[in-house]
Structures are given as structure tokens and as C-alpha cells.
């Protein structure tokens, strides 16, 4: 299937590893040029070099923290200087700390808001004018299964990824007439550093091993295993494509059946 994005320009945040890297790799494999950003310089450079060598597409990497406006400005400015446009935006970030409500200060809430909500809103604000002018665009937000079925202990993530969902659903209606789609992708338990981090935190609280913590989650998943980043990235590439031009305002899970709700 030709997804129709060869020659498009994609900006993928937090793309040096995990789900962001998998999405960047998938879009590059379809022929899209890439603007990649992350905070860690070494990992970002290594990933960008790997994608260049494996796909031959143009890749620009920008070390930046998109939870800060200065980081968003740097990434957006670099993208426009190098390519002149951004056709596909994928907002992604690491997860905030886990813990119960009483454990988080006002500062922790502010930091999580910048990380999850501010970054998505600011990146969208930066690229939307060009998308509207060209009457074509794709905005994808990586959220979480916790949006539909909150996960105990993830107070910050449950709250703020839900806020991203509300923002995206409203924006989808506002920009649909410009042939711009806005969708959210909800990863389930996927084999990433974030899930391993949560498993380690679980072992500290319960005393079980990391393998036992992972096995517990696998038993909750109807498919009986963790997801792989490339499986998640396949949906991202499709939603970014020309073929997905009539899908907007949706939140779609890639979770092996973990969410028990009907919708």
C-alpha cells in the first residue's frame, strides 16, 4: 500500500528512542523527510544517523526540550529553515512520575503540564499556519490507554493526557475544513524504557521482580504479551497518510485488547 507521504516532512518529538523512534523510522521508510527532536544529544544523533543510513531520507535532528517555549521555537524554526514546511506533526514525550495525588506538589503538576499538554499545544500552534495555507496536514498525539481506562498510580499522566485528548478533539473540528486531521494514538503496555521504568517502580513498592511485574501486565492483556514499538508505529504511519484523509478526532488504542470498554 502506497501511503502517499513520500516527500512529505514529518516532525516527531521525543524521537531518539522508544515509540518516537519507531514512528520516525516508519515514516522515513515511507519516504518522508524527518525533523527529529529530543533532549539527549548523543542518543538523538545516533538514531538520526541510523535512519539516514537505512532509508536514505533527509533527517535533521534538533536537541531541544519541547516542554519549554524556547525548545519549541528552536525545533519549529529549524524545520522551516531546512525544509520550508511541516506536513506531519507527531507530538510525543516521556511520562511524568508515578504516585498518588498527595505525593505531588504544585511544581510537579506544573512540570507535568508543560511536558504533556504545553508541548502538544505549542508544537501544533507552530505548524498549523503552514498546514492551513497548503490545505493539508496530519497531527498525531501519542497519549495513553490511561485516557480511557485510568491506571492506578499514574495521577499526572491520567489527568494531563486526558487534557491533550480534549484539546485534540476540539482542534480536529476547527481545522477539518483545511484537510487537516488530528488524531490521538493510545499505546498500551509496550516494550519501551517507560514500561521498564514503571516495572522497576512496581518492584520497589511490592518486592516482586521486574519479570514478575511484566508478567502481571501480560496476564491482563488478552493477547498475552507486551506490544512492540513497530506495531504502534504502523498505525501512526497510516494515520499520517493520504489514505487516512477521512479519519479525524479519533483516539485509537494499540493495546492488545487491554481496554475493556466498548468505545
Map the helices and strands.
Layout: E1 9-13, H1 18-29, E2 33-38, H2 41-55, E3 59-63, H3 69-83, E4 88-91, H4 106-134, E5 137-142, H5 155-175, E6 180-187, H6 193-206, H7 210-220, H8 229-239, E7 251-254
Parallel strand pairs: 1-2, 1-4, 2-3, 4-5, 5-6, 6-7
Number of helices: 8
What form results from the Cα inertia axes? Answer: globular
State the helicity in percent bands: 40-55%
Radius of gyration: 18 Å
Uncertain spans = none
Q: What is the H/E string?
A: EHEHEHEHEHEHHHE
- Report mean pLDDT, rounded to a whole number: 95
Task: Assess the beta-strand content as a share of residues.
Answer: 5-15%
First-last Cα distance: 28 Å
- Give the number of DSSP strands: 7
Which structural class do the helices and strands define?
A: alpha/beta
Q: Please summarize the sheet with the most strands.
A: 7 strands, parallel
Strands of the biggest beta sheet: in what spatial order? 3-2-1-4-5-6-7
Walk me through the structure:
This protein is an alpha/beta fold and 263 residues long. Helix content is 49%, strand content 14%. It has 8 helices and 7 strands; from the N terminus they run βαβαβαβαβαβαααβ. Strands 3-2-1-4-5-6-7 form a 7-stranded parallel beta sheet, with helices on both faces. Strand 1, helix 1 and strand 2 form a beta-alpha-beta unit. Helix 1 runs parallel beside helix 2, helix 1 crosses helix 8 and helix 4 packs parallel to helix 5. The longest helix has 29 residues. The protein is globular and about 55 Å long. The relative contact order is 0.15.
